[in-house]
Amino acid sequence: MKLEVKPYVLDFKFQARTSRGEMKNRKVWFLKLKNEEGITGIGEVAPIHRLSPEEVEEIPQYLNQLIKEINQKVLPENKDLVDEFITSIVPANKPSVRFGLEMALLDLINGGEKHIYRTNLKNIKIPINGLVWMGDESYMKEQIKVKLDNGFSCIKLKIGALDFEAELSIIKSLRRISKELIIRLDANGAFQTNEVLAKLKELSKYNIHSIEQPIMPMQPEAMELVCNRSEIPIALDEELIGIHNSRDRIDILQDLKPQYLVLKPTLHGGFSSVKEWIDLAEIHGIKWWITSYLESNLGLNAIAQFASQYPENTEHHGLGTGEIYHNNITSPIIVEKGYLAYANSMVWGDI
Question: Is the per-residue pLDDT at 77 higher than 90?
Answer without folding.
Answer: no
